[in-house]
Write a structure and sequence with these properties.
With 191 residues, this protein is mainly β. It folds into two domains: 11-118, no CATH class; 120-189, Barwin-like endoglucanases (Beta Barrel). The protein is 15% helix and 45% strand. It has helices spanning 17-24, 75-81, 126-132, 172-177; strands spanning 4-9, 12-16, 32-35, 42-51, 56-66, 70-72, 86-88, 100-103, 108-111, 115-118, 121-124, 139-144, 151-160, 167-171, 183-189. The strands form two sheets. Strands 2, 3, 4, 5, 6, 7, 8, 9 and 10 form a nine-stranded mixed beta sheet that branches. Strands 1-14-11-13-12-15 form a six-stranded mixed beta barrel. A hairpin with a 6-residue loop joins strand 12 (139-144) and strand 13 (151-160). It is globular. The two termini are 16 Å apart.
Amino acid sequence: MRTILVEVSARHIHLSRADMDVLFGEGSELHPIKDLSQPGQFASEEKVTLKGPKGTAGVRVLGPLRKETQVELSLTDARSLGVKAQIRESGDLEGTTGGLTIVGPKGEIAIDRGVIAAKRHIHMTPEDAAEFGVNNGDIVAVKIETNGRSVVFADTVIRVSPNYRLAMHIDTDEANAAAIAGEAQGTLVAF
C-alpha cells in the first residue's frame, strides 16, 4: 500500500495584508527562506512574538499573505500562553477566540479571533484521492509506525485540490505522542 509523508507543523502565524502593514510597516513584504511541501507556501524570514495572559512565544510567519490573520498552535502552546485554541481546519475561523497580542518590529495588534489548533489533515491531488478511494472532506484514520510509539490518528480530514501535494500535517503534540522527529510515513487504515 502506498504510504503518505507525515510532516510536523510547528506553531506559526499567517498574516493578513492589513496586519502585516501594522507589524512590519506599510507595504512590507514577506521574504521566503524555505519552500514548504504545499506548492506556493513558504516559511519567511519574518517572525513575531505572541503575548498571552500567561506567557510569550516567538513564531514564524508563513506565506503568502492571507485574507485573515490566523495563529496555529498546539494545545500545549495554547495552555502555555493562557489562551484557548479550538481544533479547526485552516481558514475556518468563525467562532474562534483570540486573546493574544501579536508584536512585530514596527507595531502590535490584539486579536479577538483566529487562534486555532489545526485539525490533522492530508493534502491530496484528485489523482491521489482516486487512488486512495477518498473524497474531499472524508474523515480517515492513519497508522504511523515508529520505534516503540506507533499510533493510529483517527479524525484526520482529507483535503483535495489540484494545487496540493500529497502530505499529512500534524502538530508538535501529535508528533511527540508518536515520537516523530522531522518526518514519518503513514498508511490509511480501516477504523
